[in-house]
């Protein structure tokens, strides 16, 4: 059992929530809010308010509470709902048809140009522009591909952790990561070839 859940006594709280105790429901939300907000902020779809997405996750949690069997820690079960909700939200958004050099801010273009021409690392002051560039490239991928790159490469999660969060088996994670990296590489090549022409 998760140590944080043992200190909070999730089982007792869930029993009260199932008996429609509003105070217990508020306590459960307060207990889980830091976990859920962390997941949402790591995967927040553009044009979506984080608190709206958090409320949507908690609504799903309460409406599906009867489905929770206790086979995994409750926080893992809620994490999976949060990740799935974020993926669903990303899928609902329209993808931009093409990403072009002109879409970059001046600083992002400078960072990319420096990496392409000098092969040098971006300056410390360019870290934000570099991160925004990575986010723009990732936004061109399908939600599942975005998620696997985010978890594996940016957050450095293990295959076991990713599997627990997403419900995907490790083979699927490896295949998705491979394909997502190839798509990113093609996007990057397309972007840089258009800039040179």
List the helices and strands and how they pair.
Layout: H1 3-8, H2 10-18, H3 22-43, H4 50-63, H5 74-92, H6 106-117, H7 127-138, H8 143-154, H9 159-166, H10 170-196
Name the overall outline. elongated
What is the CATH level 1 assignment of the largest domain? Mainly Alpha
CATH topology of the largest domain: Arc Repressor Mutant, subunit A
CATH homology-level superfamily of the largest domain: Winged helix-like DNA-binding domain superfamily/Winged helix DNA-binding domain
Rg over C-alpha atoms, rounded to the nearest angstrom: 20 Å
- Tally of extended strands? 0
Number of helices: 10
Number of domain modules? 2
Report the β-strand fraction as a percent range: under 5%
Mean pLDDT, all residues: 79
What's the order of the H and E elements? HHHHHHHHHH
Helix content: over 70%
Which regions are unreliable across 5 or more consecutive residues at pLDDT < 50? none
Q: What composes the largest sheet?
A: none
End-to-end distance, in Å? 58 Å
Class from secondary-structure proportions: mainly alpha
> Which CATH architecture of the largest domain?
Orthogonal Bundle
